[in-house]
Amino acid sequence: MTENGVGPDLVTHNIILSAYKNGAQYSKALSYFGLMKGTGIRPDTTTLNIVIHCLVKLEKIEEAVKIFISMRDKRTESPPDVVTFTTIIHMYSSCGQIENCKAVFDTMLAEGLKPSLISYNVLLGAYASRGMSEEALSVFNEIKQKGFRPDVVSYTSLLCAYGRSRQPDKARDVYYSMKNNRLKPNLVCYNALIDAYGANGMLTEAVETLREMERDGIQPNVVSICTLLAASGRCGRKVDIDTILSASKSRGIELNTAAYNAAIGSFLYVGEYDKAVSLYKSMGTKRAKPDSVTFNVLISGCCKFGKYDEAIELFSAMIDLAVPISKEVYSSVISAYGQQGQLEILESVFADMKMAGCTPDVVTYTSILNAYIGAEKWEKAMALFDEMETINIQLDSIACSAIMRAFNKGGNPTNVLALAKQMRERKISFTDTVIYEMVSACSMLRDWKTAVDLVELIEPSFPVISVGLINQLLRLLGKSGKSDVMVKFFYKLVASGAQINIFTYSILLKNLLAVGNWRKYIEVLEWMEDGGPQPTYDMYQNIFTYAERSSGSECAAFIKQRLGSIKQNVMA
């Protein structure tokens, strides 16, 4: 055309741009658009719609929004149409910005444009992707109210919405409704139904759907296999994972990386570590290559099974293959090096993590804290806590207990109680390990008032706290000399049904005798005889020894008289 002097016009340019778009050559389309602007030909709405579509596919969201805003300018020669708005809705849906999807849809209505069935389907799909079933149903009903006939895409999106909101029965109803309306489910629809069942642990129904798909002449694909593999893992069905892999092979379905990842994850979920590793190694002979997800699943699984050397080897392989390292992988590897006590390498990986732009979370910091504590590096642990405070890491109970342990071991029990105060202010729950460290801090500081306050604080949790923590609290109250508080604490424990054992009684009795409260000592022995764990010989012997040492005192005769012939019976 150019050689013959027939210059391309706007229609010609739009045809070529459309060809690039339909051929998924988005970068070439944008380059061509740049050349087109250099010819002085003004783009129209169709041109800009194609450009926005290509930008969205290349995830150049800001540039796409910029063109959309320019099209809405009152002086524009290329105002947005239904296609423009629909593309922008799809863009926001891909980004997970569902509120923006609805806002753009409402703007389209406000500007007098009538949405097409595709527009409604895109909005419906946005809600479905987040499992927002009520909103999805509302759009589905509106489609019918506006005179459109819902198509397979409409029904599939609604089915998906119910599946992701854990309503598999309603997903099945949508499937049957679609068939009743003489619409034939396609591969995407069947996969969505399989996912709805699989995500809710209904493996039998998922497999039956696969068979029904085949009876209807639709061959399952690798997505179908991925969904079934993930469902088998969630259901804890070891045999089914192997069966699904065999079924895939017999049907000629070649697993892709996502399918391998699903199978590896499922094997690890049911405790089949060796099979997971074997499957990973088989990827080397296939076209599917391990990616970041593969290594993340495997390294996390290694740490779960305590195979830290294997986790470190996988991390090295990941580096050799130049696979992008995710924050989750960094965190798991840091945990592995921490468990191995390799602090220098741990610190190096931690530095690399931050250099790579992966912001460490509280789990990562807690792994490092535990590594420092295990190596008795108290100063490093406390310095790490200062770093966490500086960058506003949101603490949780696990991190707080680790930090408290570092403070106590490092000789800073005052900081333990200060951190406990912060936990109250931030409404972070107090676990057994947190309370244990607080008890230890109170004991070191001889802060009996805080110890008593602590007992009152945890009173609602008496039925669920561990017997070890109960015994630790009793020791602390006994050490404080506040025997009345200690006895009241014990009464409340018994009344609440808390776990107490013979050691609990032993601690109580020793503390009572230490302050000379022999009357309460005998009373506790009688409780034990009536319904608790039976008193030991030493418990009787201790009170008799106390009575003998008190010979000549007024209480000695009374103690012997009160116990009567117990000593003789025990000796017998």
Automatic annotation (TrEMBL):
PPR repeats lie at residues 9-43, 44-78, 81-115, 116-150, 151-185, 186-220, 256-290, 291-325, 326-360, 361-395, 501-535. Pfam families: PPR (PF01535), PPR_2 (PF13041), PPR_3 (PF13812). It comes from the Eukaryota. InterPro entries: PPR_rpt, TPR-like_helical_dom_sf. Keywords: Repeat. Belongs to the PPR family. P subfamily. This is Pentatricopeptide repeat-containing protein.
